Amino acid sequence: MSATSTALLRACSLLLCLVAGSRQLSIKEFVVPKAVEIGNDAELRCQYELGAGETEAALFVKWWWTPESSSSDDRKQIYQRIAGQPAESIHHDNSSKIEIKENDTIVLTDVSPVDSGRYECEVWNIEEVRQHDKLIVFHMGTGPTVNVSEVEVGEDDRKDNLLLVECQADDVAPKPELSVTINGHEINMTTIIEDVDSNGLYSVYANTTLSTDDMEESEVRCEIFYSDTNIAHPPYVDVKTFVPAGCDTQSTTEMPEDTTEPEATPESLQNPSDDGVQLHCSWVLLTIAVLLTHLQDTL
What is the mean pLDDT of residues 222-233? Predict the structure, then answer.
């Protein structure tokens, strides 16, 4: 066999391998929402494609759920369809109800934070294929509330004025991050974030005290956010303006500017002159002359 024939045979063999490999069992569509707001529904889709010559005689499809912050050992089966049998959902006490649709699509209804976690689709038909992704259920809760107040500490003769800054929120999901800034500069806070009822809803409280010496009017801003960038939501922000006691935006050492225009005054009264006096005298002399002439005519 010539070298050319050998090379051609090898190329054909490789092509046959590639074709055979491309026709194996596969998942052609897999959809798990990245983030869903609490109370909404989440649709999960898993559509497969059989390999060359395969049938569904021994096929089964399963959905698995691993709760957030759990290990793979806590994986729970929530759905299955075995060839020749109707599909069925498997409900757990700490998860939402599941609605079954066509083509192994399932819907988690009225989701809550405990539904967050990894969802995996498994398709088995002699061989096995799997695919998974994470879903997060989020909730703003009460939203952040920031409070600022002045407090006095120390003895009566040595009291210091401090600014107490507090920020809190309840029923937030998932576990959030918190940022507090004063006039755009982030400040360090003592922060407590905990899931008291173990239901995936977190309470957040943070506080700190600052010296009010030389502090002017300030904008205090508290924001709650998530490190997971897949969660799209409006800003969770509260803002308060702090004005120190005795701080006045208008100076009291300067008199307010009087913008009233003075009334117009005749020029002769503003600047009396000799010409004005002479004109007055001329009118007196003329009047006397007219009177004398009138007397002479009557006599």
Answer: 91
Contacts of 125 (CB under 8 A, 6+ apart): 25, 50, 54, 56, 58, 59, 60
Return the CATH fold of 23-138: Immunoglobulin-like (2.60.40)
- CATH superfamily, region 145-242: Immunoglobulins (2.60.40.10)
Tokens linked to 127: 């061989």
What token pair was written down for 291? Answer: 């009177």
Amino acid letter, residue 131: Q
- Mean pLDDT on 72-81: 92
What count of other Cβ atoms lies within 10 Å of the Cβ of residue 91? 10
Q: Could you tell me the pLDDT band of residue 203, with boundaries at 50, 70 and 90? A: very high
> In terms of C-beta density within 10 A (0-12 exposed, 13-18 middle, 19 or more buried), how is residue 75 classed?
middle
Alpha-carbon dihedral angle through residues 226, 228, 234, 236, given to the nearest 10 degrees? 0
Residues sharing a CB contact under 8 Å with residue 62, sequence separation 6 or more, in sequence order: 77, 79, 80, 81, 121, 122, 124
pLDDT at residue 260 above 60?
A: no
Across-strand partners of 134? 118
| Helices marked H in 230-273 | 267-270
